[in-house]
């Protein structure tokens, strides 16, 4: 499944739009909303994020994720809400215009501080029409709050892959 999403993302990135009105990241006061699927080793769920542009290449935001399908750990039935939910503050460096990509494509590495860990992410998005596009990103923990995590404590505290749709909410 991940290989399918990766191939789809590479195909989307290779698509170039000639309409100058379409922009993946405009800069200051730019507002992007993303919603999609969260894929992890022990579960899948939904993820949503919002980013607000502070300048020509930087944005801040928030992200929430909730795991719906969770595989069992050592015979323990169901994880609780706190095990499934994660909330993160994000900082992105939007590099699409810096490295000369078409205006409808953006690549963004960044850092995030969440309820489960301090981590990093790298992603990309492409817009096909004004206000609508696709995104894909991967996240990984740098420092876990609980280094001895066992069972459900590992949820939202591991490498994950997010893919979905992106919306331009700017003026």
Descriptive overview:
- There is one protein chain.
- With 171 residues, this protein is mainly beta.
- The chain has a single domain (2-168), classed as Porin.
- 10% of the residues lie in helices and 51% in strands.
- It is built from two helices and eight strands.
- It has helices spanning 2-14, 81-84, and strands at residues 31-40, 43-53, 58-70, 85-93, 105-114, 117-129, 132-144, 160-168.
- The chain has an eight-stranded antiparallel beta barrel.
- The radius of gyration is 16 Å and the shape is elongated.
- Mean pLDDT is 82; it is low at 3-21.
**Number of folding domains?**
1
Number of helices: 2
CATH second-level architecture: Beta Barrel
What share of the residues does DSSP label as strand, in percent?
over 45%
* Helix/strand class: mainly beta
Overall morphology: elongated
CATH third-level topology: Porin
**Which oligomerization state do the chains in this entry correspond to?**
single chain
Give me the side-by-side strand order of the main sheet: 1-2-3-4-5-6-7-8
Query: For the terminal residues, how far apart are their CA atoms?
Result: 36 Å
CATH class, named Mainly Beta
H and E order = HEEEHEEEEE
Largest sheet: 8 strands, antiparallel, barrel
Beta strand count: 8
If you average the pLDDT, what whole number results? 82
Organism: Pedobacter punctiformis
Protein name: Outer membrane protein beta-barrel domain-containing protein
Pfam families: DUF6646 (PF20351)
InterPro entries: DUF6646
